[in-house]
Specification:
Elements: E1 19-20, H1 39-64, H2 73-126, H3 129-152, H4 154-158, H5 162-177, H6 181-189, H7 193-222, H8 228-239, H9 249-254, H10 271-275, E2 283-284
Antiparallel strand pairs: 1-2
Helix pairs in contact: 1-2, 1-3, 1-7, 2-5, 2-7, 3-5, 3-6, 3-7
């Protein structure tokens, strides 16, 4: 069943430009828990970051496999911008992950990377190219709604240590800029509703299981598993009222709509103000 969104590409296309930032993360070496001085929030985000370099290469390959289906020159530029931005995300998060690893978490980071690569290799082997693109569209929705949560919550950003704050703001801006690229391409290639939902639920389940397991492993290494009050506070910040995760749950359900399109939530008004907070990019290339 192929259902096209009534709002498909209704929003004027944003320029999708790769920007290499070369973040230095100055001061991170002296900061144990960089997100609200909270181990649960910090390690949850650290674990997500570990998945980005390899995960975003998977996204790029899934999109690149079908870009020849697109004739529109502007959409070809959008795809090039998507590929370039994801490549930059991989580089910046690899640098961040190396610093996290060097804070005594080498074995855990390597284990998490190994599991990530195993899961992605399984996806490449067992999913068709169309299913890989559908999975990419679904996981891009998850990254987009987490990005939206960050951009809408200045109070949340202020709780991030300055050494890493710009990384997450920059990443959130670019995830917003290209949030419809994989989805639109999937609509061109297949557009099947049930395939889109199957891969979305599967991707969500794997991401939840992976994040929960490795966040807990990081917390165990720090001994936080024996600190119930600290754990409870951190879990409330994630899943309680206006939590980092709970705030994104309503938007997660939007993907289940047959007429869903990422730009039905037009949050372009958030981008300019946040861009103004960032340093000048080391490299900025037109898509």
């Amino acid at each position: 069943m192929k259902l096209l969104s009534r709002s498909r590409r209704a929003v004027q296309r944003l320029p999708i430009r790769p920007r290499r930032m070369n973040f230095r993360f100055k001061g991170l070496e002296n900061t144990r828990y960089w997100f609200d001085d909270d181990p649960v929030l910090t390690h949850f985000m650290n674990v997500l970051s570990v998945t980005f370099p390899d995960g975003e290469r998977f996204f790029v390959d899934a999109v690149r496999a079908f870009r020849d289906r697109v004739d529109d020159p502007q959409r070809q530029k959008d795809i090039s911008g998507f590929i370039g931005q994801e490549a930059m995300h991989s580089l910046e998060h690899q640098a961040f992950n190396d610093l996290v690893s060097g804070k005594g978490y080498e074995a855990l980071v390597e284990k998490a990377l190994g599991v990530t690569r195993h899961l992605l290799a399984g996806g490449r082997k067992h999913l068709s190219a169309e299913e890989q693109l559908a999975a990419t569209a679904g996981l891009e929705h998850i990254t987009a709604i987490l990005a939206d949560t960050i951009l809408r919550r200045g109070d949340m950003v202020e709780k991030m240590d300055p050494s890493v704050r710009d990384l997450w703001v920059w990443h959130s801006i670019e995830e917003t800029e290209h949030k419809a690229v994989a989805f639109d391409l999937y609509q061109d290639v297949d557009g099947g509703y049930w395939r889109r939902q199957r891969t979305f639920f599967t991707g969500t389940a794997y991401l939840i299981g992976f994040s929960a397991y490795f966040t807990w492993q990081f917390l165990k290494q720090d001994g936080v598993n024996r600190q119930p009050l600290t754990l409870a506070k951190g879990l409330w910040k994630m899943f309680g009222y206006r939590g980092v995760v709970s705030a994104a749950i309503p938007a997660w359900f939007q993907y289940l709509r047959p007429d869903f399109h990422p730009w039905q939530d037009d949050n372009t008004h958030l981008l300019d103000a946040w861009r103004a907070t960032l340093p000048e990019p080391a490299v900025s290339a037109a898509a």
